[in-house]
Protein 1
Amino acid sequence: MNKLETAAGTDLARIAQLFPEFSERLRTTMQAQAVGVERYVDHIQYIADLVGSEHVAFGSDFDGVADLPAGIDDCRGFAMVLEEMRQRGFSSVEIEAISWSNFIRVFNAVCG
């Protein structure tokens, strides 16, 4: 049985402790490849073009990820993302949907 199989069903923090060399390598790699707001919006645009903007929503796991796009250290950074989206031609309806209403729609559908 390998480390991952042994840790199955435990919390992610426990699993991360089992693989310190991987965690450090990932952190180093991510820091070297830090992206800015423009690249972040590239991803939003790609997904919106691929499946429609009604299937895109912001996540705000500021405490759950190793690295964030440059300039997005907390929720205040989303103002730069919204401005970049406006400049790229996202409509106000699309921006509102991606910012919060898509999440609320899915949350209500799943959780009632």
Protein 2
Amino acid sequence: TPRHPEAITSDEAATASFVALEDVISSYLDRLFPGMEILEHHTFRVTRNEDLEVEEDD
């Protein structure tokens, strides 16, 4: 298991270099959302497997 799974590496360089995954994604936002104007971007996390109580409407 990688120590920093949110970072990707490049083996092409003579020395190891790391790039944060959010930096890669932010560089391609125009391709991910074609035709949309990107004004800002922010990093966020999605939490899974959390015990949340959901109140359903009657």
